[in-house]
Amino acid sequence: MPSLIDEPQHFIMDQDDRKTNKNIPQQFTPNGLATFRNFLKSEYSDENIEFWLTCEDYKKIKSSFRLSSRAKKIYEQFIKAESPKEINIDYHTREQIKRNVKTPTMHCFDDAQKIVYGLMERDSYPRFLRSDIYRTLLENLSADATKG
Which domain of life is it from (predicted)? Predict the structure, then answer.
């Protein structure tokens, strides 16, 4: 898979992270993440990154009441069949989460998050690196670096 180590790709990932995690969406800089999200929107698959980021925020919740409330919202938005931003996960995982949400923990979405992450890592992210959006980004960064 193409690397994000060489300049000017530093825009996409934080410096320390690109040394060890060459193609992991979670390590994006804010501008790199925005570019990747725009790419996913253009492919009608932005629910994947939205779910993944929502789960990362969910894991930071300390209040059990808030955890329960947020778990139900995540389930209704991303997990439930025919939900507005339904993610592509298998039936077994969907049913397990349905049970987990009844007594949620900070890890009740971990299996689905791993599946979605794998989809992005194997499918969306390599396509992003070959996309016109990414090429344009690199060209603009090269032009800015030359000017500056």
Answer: Eukaryota
Position 141 in a domain: no
Structural domain of 107: 47-118
Residue 28 φ then ψ, to 5°: -60, 145
Domain count, the chain: 1
Note whether residue 25 is domain-resident.
no
Q: What is the pLDDT along the chain (148 residues), one digit of tens a residue?
A: 333 323 333 334 444 443 344 445 556 777 788 889 999 999 999 999 999 999 999 999 999 999 999 999 999 999 999 999 999 999 999 999 999 999 999 999 999 999 999 999 899 989 999 999 888 888 877 777 777 6
55-60: list long-range contacts, CB under 8 Å, 24+ apart. 55/109, 55/110, 55/112, 55/113, 56/26, 58/106, 58/109, 59/106, 59/107
Q: Token pair for residue 91?
A: 């039936």
Number of Cβ within 10 Å of residue 102's Cβ equals 11
CATH code, domain carrying 96: 1.10.167.10
| Amino acid at position 115, single letter | I
Q: In this structure, is residue 23 part of a structural domain?
A: no
